[in-house]
Design brief:
Layout: H1 12-22, H2 43-55, H3 68-84, E1 92-96, H4 99-117, E2 127-131, H5 137-144, E3 148-152, H6 162-168, E4 173-179, H7 191-201, E5 205-208, H8 216-221, E6 236-241, E7 254-258, H9 261-264, E8 269-271, E9 279-281, H10 290-328, E10 332-333, E11 341-345, H11 351-360, E12 366-369, E13 372-377, H12 386-401
Helix pairs in contact: 2-10, 3-10, 4-5, 10-12, 11-12
Bound molecules: pyridoxal-5'-phosphate.
Pyridoxal-5'-phosphate binds next to helix 4.
């Protein structure tokens, strides 16, 4: 039922109370019982996000001349991202509104770059070759830009299959894709092998590090043997890395990064054909919330390398504890996760039924469908609730094994 606007305004204290009450039915992320959608890096980080966001909440990143402060903060955030991800001195990038925006804009840049190199009299339908595990943002962008997305089956290890992807490339391929890691399995694709293909075939390789870009560098600094996945690999032309995921920044902030200016130049939209004056926008947005930029700048400087290393250690410690615990219950981990996501299947029991029991116990997490598994995207705060999770999982599994077949019927984000 649509609600009309109230004739007279209401007092803020009452509205605030009502808003807080409305959240009572939401997922209980503050208790650590949610392992999707929210990244909880602790009270102190939340406070920095909030205060830094409100300081520039009214300012607009659309106007760098009016707000040189925001432009400087954006440049510094992008600089930090580029250096963490081993970009050469020529590296450039933009803050976007999120991972979907970053991916869309990287594809737009790659498409226009391809067209500039292959001027063709007839309009060709261009394609993108990506692993089956790549994010739906690629489908969305491909649909918007009338491109074909070729999803190629992963290998038995659930990683992108370089040979199969190579075979799917043709003259109209404008981009190939690897994830670091992919969202469904949390596994980092063989980016070095994809980089070799990109160099050999002279194709644009985009690494989607939306969920890994701001955790993998620190996990590696903490000692994990993570294979090269970023601009360190020569064939990588662009990357997407979300600040509002493991960068622990306020929502509405991602980064799209390019090896060099001549690639990014194809992303920028420069319009003079209207009476309002020339408008130049780097990303999909017109108005760009200043708060998302200022909060990202503040959180990155608040945590610094040591702060991120310790937060990311909490994530990987929680993941390792959970891996041990679920293996002891008979689950099988999909592949070898190295960052913040872990997925695990069960050889005999229906994990969609286990999910239902966990849901009844207050857990809001995810599932994968091929193969069927339980999926967790962990935050530093989860380090405090691994015992409760494993206890609830043990009880849920036992309930399913004793014949409670009540199961969820699908996995969906909507
Ligand atoms: C989250 C995610 C995206 C999309 O990011 P949004 O900020 O939700 O638009 C893309 N790719 C991967 C691997 C992701 O995890």
């Amino acid at each position: 039922m649509l609600k009309n606007m109230p004739k007279h305004g209401q007092a803020w204290p009452e509205l605030k109370t009502e808003m807080i009450n409305r959240g009572s039915g939401d997922a209980k992320w503050r208790e650590g019982k949610t392992a999707v959608y929210v990244f909880n890096a602790g009270e102190d980080v939340a406070r920095v996000q909030k205060e830094a966001y409100t300081l520039y909440m009214s300012e607009n990143g659309l106007g760098p001349a009016a707000f040189p402060s925001l432009k400087q903060m954006e440049d510094e955030v992008i600089g930090m991202g580029l250096s963490l991800l081993h970009a050469p001195e020529t590296g450039v990038g933009s803050i976007t509104s999120g991972g979907t925006d970053s991916i869309t804009m990287a594809i737009k840049a790659a498409r226009d770059y391809h067209r500039s190199k292959h001027p063709s009299p007839a309009i060709q339908k261009l394609n993108i070759v990506a692993p089956f595990s790549a994010h739906p943002a690629f489908d969305k962008a491909a649909q918007m830009m009338d491109l074909e997305l070729r999803r190629i089956a992963c290998g038995p290890n659930l990683l992108a299959d370089p040979a199969a992807m190579s075979a799917a490339i043709d003259a109209n391929t404008m981009m190939i894709v690897g994830s670091a890691p992919c969202f469904p399995y949390g596994l980092i694709d063989p980016i070095e092998a994809l980089g070799q293909i990109a160099e050999r075939e002279n194709k644009w390789l985009h690494v989607d590090a939306c969920v890994g870009g701001y955790i993998a560098p620190f996990v590696r600094m903490n000692g994990a043997d993570i294979k090269p996945f970023d601009f360190e690999v020569n064939g990588v032309s662009s990357m997407s890395a979300d600040l509002h995921k493991y960068g622990y920044c306020a929502k509405g902030a991602s980064s799209v990064l390019f090896r060099a200016e001549d690639l990014m130049a194809h992303m920028i939209f420069d319009c003079d054909g209207w009476p309002g004056g020339r408008m130049i926008t780097p990303t999909l947005s017109g108005t760009r919330p200043g708060g998302a930029i200022s909060a990202a700048w503040a959180v990155m400087n608040y945590l610094g390398i040591e702060g991120y290393k310790s937060k990311q250690k909490m994530v990987t410690d929680a993941r390792e504890t959970i891996e041990e615990g679920v293996k002891a219950l008979g689950f099988e981990i999909l592949g070898t996760p190295q960052v913040g996501i872990v997925a695990f299947s069960h050889p005999t029991e229906n994990v969609f039924a286990v999910y239902k029991q966990m849901y009844k116990r207050g857990w809001f997490t995810s599932l994968t469908t091929e193969p069927r598994s339980l999926h967790l995207m962990l935050s530093p705060f989860h380090a405090e609730v691994t015992d409760i999770y494993l206890m609830d999982l043990k009880n849920s599994l036992e309930q399913v094994m004793s014949g409670d077949t009540d199961a969820v019927t699908e996995s969906r984000y909507s």
